[in-house]
């Protein structure tokens, strides 16, 4: 999650001084050779002592004579699922994902009868996979000539990523479809539309990340929604791993009509060195730079006059996506429909060796630094945000296209319009749903904390 501020620059300055003066050779601190495991691990530990949210739980004298990836895992707090140590020379420190290599994801399911099926869950628009006719909901018969099973799907996925291609046989389609490496950048806005139901105009937006590139497309979508006189908004973030806080603040400004430029969007709470800081909608929006530069007044012009918003979530909804949900709640009625979210309620930024010359090149730390809270002081959702109404996309197979009114998550929103109670509404199918035994998108969840840039 991106966080850029004077507050964070102060932390960086603190660490620079700490690095230059606090870490000089002394009787108690050996001068390890540059490039050695001890030197790298010592730098990691010193960095974590300054920034890490759980810095008081760091071991006092851990063994430095191990490889850095193992060392980092050993010093992390047991509650920390997302901090990461990355080096491009060590692929195991940053595992690739199927969607980023081939442009699609799949899940392997087991039905109540024991039948195992592998299903395409997502296809990146305009990718080679989409160009070959691969669509969400396709049932895969074979992968590289092998029938996928519970025992081999992980290996088949790893092999497809390694060779940067996959030969697929799809049920209902003839021949073999060869999918090669993704060449286009992923547009965070997959689709948007307006449809009618029960006499109302529903705007639907599928947003797959809060990367900077999303903002221009979000503006186009809201312009279209206004032209079509949309009365309700369904924001689909079921697979959204997060991204930029300023982009999330911009979208929140477009959704909630009663916010102001000075209203609180997020409060960052760090360790005793970091302290806490409150940030308004206007402050976050001002961090949008270059072609993204805008202001609160412009963004408020896209508003639809909503008094509520439906937000679709799943187990992959994380980071800035969860922040948006939590930060909107004090200002507008949010009806969260789907599944419990991932529970990444923290922000981070990259830490590198900023000394000149560098002593520890290439290694980058992405520590969890700040807990996130909204204007009502509510946060600490590390177990995920619970939906107001439960719905599961797997309750109706094959999987429906994003935005299809027959999709169980969309359908739950349409049904909610006729329900007056404020209690949680269970709308899942009574029929037994298949069990997910493998999901290629899990690596994206683990990397959701890495969609950040160095503070400027």
UniProtKB/TrEMBL annotation:
Biological process according to GO: proteolysis; signal transduction
A GO term, aspect molecular function: endopeptidase activity
Domain Peptidase S41 N-terminal: 39-83
Xref: Gene3D superfamilies: 2-enoyl-CoA Hydratase, Chain A, domain 1 (3.90.226.10), 2.30.42.10, 3.30.750.170
Pfam family of the protein (one): Pept_S41_N
GO CC annotation: outer membrane-bounded periplasmic space
PROSITE patterns xrefs: PROKAR_LIPOPROTEIN
UniProt superkingdom: Bacteria
InterPro entries on file: ClpP/crotonase-like_dom_sf (IPR029045), PDZ_sf (IPR036034), Pept_S41_N (IPR041613), Tail-specific_protease (IPR005151)
Residue span, Tail specific protease domain: 202-351
PANTHER family assigned to the protein according to its UniProt record, in alphabetical order: CARBOXY-TERMINAL PROCESSING PROTEASE CTPA, TAIL-SPECIFIC PROTEASE
Protein name in the entry: Uncharacterized protein
Organism, scientific name: Pedobacter lusitanus
């Amino acid at each position: 999650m991106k966080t850029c501020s004077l507050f964070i620059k102060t932390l960086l300055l603190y660490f620079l001084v700490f690095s230059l003066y606090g870490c000089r050779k002394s009787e108690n601190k050996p001068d390890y050779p540059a490039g050695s495991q001890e030197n790298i691990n010592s730098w990691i530990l010193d960095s974590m002592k300054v920034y890490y949210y759980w810095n008081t739980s760091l071991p006092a004298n851990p063994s430095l004579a191990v490889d850095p990836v193992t060392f980092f895992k050993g010093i992390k707090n047991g509650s920390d699922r997302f901090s990461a140590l990355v080096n491009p020379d060590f692929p195991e420190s940053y595992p690739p994902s199927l969607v980023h290599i081939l442009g699609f994801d799949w899940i392997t399911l087991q039905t109540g009868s024991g039948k195992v099926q592998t299903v395409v869950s997502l296809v990146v628009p305009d990718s080679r996979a989409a160009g070959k006719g691969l669509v969400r909901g396709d049932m895969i018969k074979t992968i590289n000539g092998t029938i996928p099973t519970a025992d081999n799907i992980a290996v088949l996925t790893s092999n497809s990523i390694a060779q940067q291609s996959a030969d697929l046989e799809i049920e209902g389609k003839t021949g073999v479809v060869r999918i090669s490496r993704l060449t286009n950048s992923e547009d965070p806005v997959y689709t948007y539309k307006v449809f009618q139901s029960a006499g109302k105009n529903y705007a639907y937006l599928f947003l797959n990340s809060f990367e900077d590139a999303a903002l221009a497309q979000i503006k186009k979508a809201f312009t279209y929604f206004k032209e079509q006189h949309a009365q309700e908004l369904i924001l689909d973030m079921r697979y959204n791993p997060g991204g930029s806080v300023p982009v999330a603040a911009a979208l929140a400004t477009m959704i909630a009509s009663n916010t102001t430029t000075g209203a609180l969007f997020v409060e960052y709470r760090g360790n005793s060195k970091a302290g806490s800081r409150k940030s308004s909608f206007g402050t976050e929006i001002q961090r949008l730079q270059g072609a993204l530069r805008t202001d609160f007044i412009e963004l408020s012009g896209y508003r639809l006059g909503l008094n509520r918003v439906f937000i679709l979530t799943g187990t992959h909804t994380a980071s800035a996506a969860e922040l948006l949900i939590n930060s909107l709640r004090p200002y507008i009625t949010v009806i969260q429909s789907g599944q419990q979210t991932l529970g990444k309620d923290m922000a981070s930024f990259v830490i590198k060796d900023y000394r000149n010359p560098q002593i520890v090149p290439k290694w980058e730390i992405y520590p969890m630094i700040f807990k996130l809270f909204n204007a009502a002081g509510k946060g600490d959702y590390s177990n995920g945000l619970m939906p107001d109404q439960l719905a599961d996309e797997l309750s109706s197979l094959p999987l429906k296209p994003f935005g299809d009114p027959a999709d169980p998550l969309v359908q739950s929103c349409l049904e909610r319009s006729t329900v007056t109670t404020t209690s949680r509404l269970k709308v899942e199918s009574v029929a037994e749903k298949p069990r997910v035994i493998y999901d290629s998108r899990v690596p994206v969840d683990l990397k959701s904390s890495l969609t950040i840039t160095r503070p400027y």
